[in-house]
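FORM 7B: Structural annotation worksheet

SECTION A. Query
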Amino acid sequence: MEQNRITVNDEAQGYSVPWKPVDNWVAIFLLVLINIALLYFASRGLGTQLAQSSALILIQLVYLIPVLAVFGYRRLNFKAIGFGKFDWNTLGLGCGLLIGSYVLIIIHNGILTLLGVETQGEEILQILNGLDSPVWLVVVGVLFAPIIEEIFFRGFLFQGFRQKYGLVGGALISSAVFALGHLDPVALIPTFILGLLLAYMYHRSNSVWPGIILHFLVNAFGFCSLYVITQFPDLIPV
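SECTION B. Predicted structure
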């Protein structure tokens, strides 16, 4: 009976990364400090200006600081994040699972609407309507965010937590940090669901590329849909 028992740590031993679990928690702590700094600047009335400025790119790149700090301290090769080849069937599976995820997200948004709470889409729509030009916001959200967030949340956090806590534990913890890191209460559950899907994509492929591509598709579809609504409010009522 004892011989057949498989603990979380036993399961996690098959996932090897060249950094320690404490490095993940240090990186999360650094991320918290970065988010506090960004919230401070946003509270100073700089949010709208930054949303239509190329400085958004630099702000997004700041999220790589925790990874660079750990990799620099440990003298690690950045290839450990997972930039290898992958099976395109994995991406096809991800697209199929994404449809199921959207069903859950639609139910979630429907409940928020019934409760009179604004959804994430409505919040972003208000931001777009308040900008003179949404170009930089869309460029960063569609192109830069998928790459940088997949490197940090899946290539670094998920891998590290998976080694310590196994697939389920790693996916849950990294997805929770992913959701909380977006600093949007109404998007907490949808972002958590997306995080679980992207973590599974990494687990299936051991590569960040399927997650980056899927993340790109999600953000591109969301931004393009909202932008069309802003341009044709009479044809597409909200």
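SECTION C. Observations
Residues 11-77+87-231 form one domain. Confidence is low (pLDDT under 50) at residues 1-11.

SECTION D. Sign-off
Analyst initials: ____
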